[in-house]
Design goal:
The chain is of the alpha+beta class. The protein contains 15 helices and 26 strands. Strands 1, 2, 8, 9, 10, 11, 17 and 18 form an 8-stranded mixed beta sheet that branches. β20 and β21 form a beta hairpin. α2 packs parallel to α8. It is globular.
Length: 542
């Protein structure tokens, strides 16, 4: 679209970032940018929020992210957790696989939480509404996207209450497509969406069950690997329960999703209209797809627009929220004039590498349960029961993903992985490190203070990033925060380091065993940020 063409339409806004899609990913991105004072407009084609359940679970990393917004997953009446493993059992009730969904993760939060997505989205929108620089526009259908060296122009159709449609234009520095699997933005940017050959239709039944504790439904979260009807049974948030049934070969998905069929499937579990309400019955196609490229100039994609995965690892929405955080801090640097937009290139390479792990893991789990042949299932059972018996009894740990290539110093221990978080104390306040010491760019050190070992130039640039230097130690030592339960001492001993550089998304940028190695790693990270802060006044070494 030329400037002359754009002038023919109503200019809705001129903003820093336009986000297409007002789901949890797009809204979180808008909130994080809005908290930094950037002007953001979120548009969504639907006139009202979708009030039916979709995602029902998130992990410890998302709990850490939500804490940025003041949502405490451990003490929120709309969120629950269970001290139970994630069991995979055959038709006889024998354990095939045990996944760790009950422990406290190294990042300081529980491994798994359960919630209702409409409730979470309502909370996110409320936070967005409190930010004066964030605007949400509904009933806005994106129809065109063009860009030049200076801006990207989003055109859309909006229908007013009187039924009259108008064409409107939003001029932005960047546009982000968080508009789902059928993303308009991804298509408009010419970004591919590779299919990895995993297709299974499943019926999703979401139930409201106030008296759920009176029923014996087995473990809190488990997979029934019965070839006669592979089934998933998991919580759906407080007072809710979800059943997922694989659509068998030859079945009609529409007929299976009927209310009569739903109650028939639930009857063996003792679930009836007398003790439960059917909130939703719908057939979904579980897929495995991802985009090879996540950016084209001033346009980027996130969430389901960039990747789809089967739900068996409970990581689909989690991956999208990680996208939002990873993109937000990069866009903040660019929009604040601290970095050139080359820093955005690492967003896609890092996130693609990370999401590949969870898609592959989800597909492996899917291939275990999506077996409808009795003989094949029997062979699977025999193999998995033997493997479980031969193991040391430790449940499978799903938290082993690392970032793809990007803004972290490879070759330093734990770099590219989510950072450990323990309980610390400072100035009479005790709690998780993020809450007590703060979030953002941080150098943690023990022994020498990180602030004392950086060069003048590094100190100047670090200050320009609003970076923190935190000396951690034990009670009685000269330090900024006390390592209350020894978490940091154990972690640093394990990785052979005395310094850790943390990023705003809680990932480790680098670790170092001594001041010289810290300075070398910090130079690598600062170079990768494409900083443009050369006009700042020098800062003396502290």
């Amino acid at each position: 679209m030329t400037d002359t063409q754009a002038a023919q339409y109503d200019l809705v806004d001129s903003v820093d970032v336009a986000v297409v899609g007002c789901g949890p990913v797009g809204t979180l991105l808008a909130v994080l940018l809005g908290q930094r004072g950037h002007r953001v407009t979120v548009v969504d084609k639907w006139p009202a929020p979708y009030e039916q359940p979709r995602a029902v679970t998130y992990d410890h990393e998302i709990a850490r992210i939500l804490a940025i917004l003041g949502i405490d997953s451990d003490n929120d009446p709309a969120i629950e957790y269970h001290d139970d493993l994630y069991y995979w059992r055959n038709a006889k009730g024998e354990n095939l696989l045990e996944v760790d969904w009950k422990s406290i993760a190294a990042s300081g939060w529980r491994t798994r939480y359960w919630f209702s997505q409409p409730e979470l989205e309502k909370r996110l929108r409320a936070v967005a509404a409190s930010l004066p620089s964030v605007t949400i526009r509904r009933g806005w259908l994106a129809t065109d996207l063009v860009q030049n060296d200076d801006e990207i122009v989003l055109t859309g159709q909006v229908t007013g209450a009187n039924g009259v449609s108008a064409t409107e234009v939003i001029r932005a520095k960047y546009v982000v497509g968080a508009d789902g699997a059928n993303s308009f933005v991804r298509t408009a940017l010419g970004l591919d969406f590779a299919d990895h050959g995993f297709f299974f239709d499943w019926l999703i039944l979401d139930m409201i069950m106030p008296d759920i504790s009176r029923l014996d439904l087995g473990p809190k979260h488990w997979q029934l690997c019965d070839p006669a009807r592979p089934t998933t049974i998991v919580p759906g948030g407080p007072g809710r329960r979800r059943w997922e049934y694989m659509v068998l070969p030859g079945e009609n998905p529409v007929e299976l999703a009927s209310e009569q069929s739903a109650w028939r499937l639930l009857e063996p579990w003792g679930v009836t209209p007398a003790n439960a309400e059917l909130e939703r019955s719908a057939v979904y196609r579980f897929q495995a797809r991802w985009a090879e490229n996540w950016r084209n100039g001033r346009g980027l994609i996130a969430g389901d627009a960039a990747h789809l995965m089967p739900p068996f690892a409970g990581e689909g929405m989690c991956a999208g929220l990680r996208d939002a955080v990873a993109l937000a801090w990069r866009l903040d640097l660019v929009l604040s004039g601290k970095s050139g937009d080359d820093v955005l290139e690492s967003y896609g390479t890092e996130r693609k590498g990370h999401v590949h792990h969870y898609i592959d893991f989800s597909m492996r789990l899917g291939k275990i349960i999506c077996i409808a042949d009795a003989d094949e299932a029997a062979a699977r059972d025999e193999q998995m029961i033997a493997e479980l018996a031969a193991s040391d009894g430790t449940p499978v740990d799903t938290d082993i993903a690392s970032l793809g290539p990007g803004l972290w110093h490879s070759g330093t221990a734990h770099a590219g992985e989510l950072s450990v978080q323990g309980v610390v104390e400072a100035d009479g306040r005790r709690g998780r490190f993020d809450d007590v010491a703060g979030r953002g760019w941080t150098v943690i050190g023990r022994g020498a203070s990180p602030a004392d070992v950086l060069t003048d130039e590094q100190s100047r640039l670090w200050e320009g990033l609003d970076g923190r230097s935190v000396r951690i130690g034990t009670a009685g030592e000269d330090c900024d925060v006390i390592d209350v339960d020894g978490t940091y001492a154990r972690w640093l001993d394990e990785i052979g380091a005395d310094f850790v550089i943390l990023r705003p998304d809680f990932y480790v940028a680098a670790t170092a065993p001594n001041p010289a190695a810290l300075r070398a790693s910090l130079d690598t990270i600062l170079d990768g940020l494409h900083l443009t802060m050369s006009d700042r006044a020098p800062v003396t070494t502290r």
